[in-house]
Specification:
Blueprint (H helix, E strand, L loop, with lengths): L1 E6 L8 H23 L4 E5 L2 E6 L3 H5 L7 E9 L2 H11 L5 E10 L6 H12 L4 E3 L6 E8 L2 E5 L3 E2 L11 E5 L3 H12 L3 E6 L6 H8 L6 E2 L3 H8 L4 E2 L4 H10 L3 E2 L7 H11 L2
Parallel strand pairs: 5-6, 5-7, 10-11, 10-13, 11-12, 13-14
Antiparallel strand pairs: 1-3, 1-4, 2-3, 4-8, 4-9, 7-8
Helix pairs in contact: 3-4, 5-6, 5-9
Length: 276
Amino acid sequence: MVRILVRYGEIALKSAPVRRRFEQALVRNIRGALHSSLQVPCRVSRGSGRILLDTPQEAVPILQRVFGIVSLSVAQECPADLAAMTALALALTKGWEGTFAVRTRRVGKHPFSSQQVNEHLGNSLRSPQLRVDLSHPQHTLHVEIRDRTAFLFTDVVQGQGGFPLGSQGKIVALIHDLEGVLAAWLFMRRGCAVVPFFPREPLGLEALEAWAFQKLPFRQGGSLAAAIQQERSLGLVVAHPGDIARYKQELGIPVYCPLLGMEEGDRVRMLKELGC
């Protein structure tokens, strides 16, 4: 088991009640993703804008696919005092050569500033084989001090960002080609519970379900208007700008096209990431 520090972005800007609801949704999705993929439990705690997980190392690539996570790090923790942080920093950076930098962030009240931590650890770590370079370091030691606990780590793994899946309401997505799959995926990343509507075969359904870590309810054939009404959809997601005016007039509901203005290269890259 390792300790993983999970960061989220836009959720932190919400009001306290909304942030709490979004955090609960994110924790629920994290548990679901790890249970679905690894069949292992994880211990979860929250505090000061971070989620802490105790889970196997194999969870890292799975967490990268959970919407709402901006980044994560496998971290070591110690008391938030300079002596303990120095001892842990020396252990984590053993064998480093070349150049390095220390980057510190703090939450709470402490008898030292972030800059003082940077300077103290930097002076403790540097040697003839390891020099300080704040502009282009070969190695970076990150320190996050949150009240009485310090977390030290050397890697920041990027996540998907966005909002937790299911936190933004339900919406039907019209899918009849790969770009439709991409449009649905983009709305999933923004937290919507997407209900795919396939006029013909369920194209890309498995890829979308792999990102949801669960089976998705979907509609195949039949009336699009009836599906929207029965699902109580907040609107319709389409992939092609030419469909906006058509379906807005036919259905009388908001129509969204997340691919509008997106360059072809970005579409190809995202489809590859999606798995299509």
